[in-house]
Design goal:
five-stranded antiparallel beta sheet; alpha+beta; disordered N terminus; globular; 140 residues; Mannose-Binding Protein A, Chain A
């Protein structure tokens, strides 16, 4: 299913097990995770440290407990039935690029795991690289 939003309003769309909030948050009811969904997630790149600071400082829809997602959380967004991006149809703002996770590579702490939403692949990348980030929080 494809969403086309002409104007953001305070309503919610229901699509199977996924609820998309109008505004700046998408809620995945399968995982109970709330995801940042604003233009910044497809427009601005950051290093690993900058991404962590950005999420920690984020206040969105009156929530202040945002963080960079774990690699396993990012993987829940992958749906390889789709391509460019290879993700669930959950977001208004979606991109086929590399996104940070906060999961560090075990053998080299200068690297962290990332997901490439072009095709759904994952890899460890230097924390000095510039990549996108989509902050997450658990719905309570």
């Amino acid at each position: 299913m494809i969403f086309k939003v002409l104007k953001r309003v305070s309503v919610l769309w229901i699509c199977g097990a996924i609820t998309v909030w109008a505004g700046d948050i998408a809620l995945d009811r399968d995982t109970n995770l709330m995801w940042e969904d604003r233009p910044v997630v497809i427009e601005e790149v950051r290093t690993f440290i900058e991404a962590r600071r950005y999420c920690q400082d984020l206040i969105l829809e009156n929530y202040s407990d945002w963080r960079v997602p774990l690699i396993d959380e990012l993987m829940t967004l992958i749906d390889k039935r789709y391509y460019k991006p290879a993700e669930k149809p959950l977001f208004i703002y979606s991109s086929s690029n590399w996104y940070w996770s906060r999961s560090q590579f075990t053998n080299d702490k200068s690297k962290a795991w990332s997901i490439n939403f072009f095709n759904g692949s994952d890899d460890y990348r230097s924390k000095l690289e510039y990549q996108y980030v989509r902050c997450v929080r658990r719905k309570k």
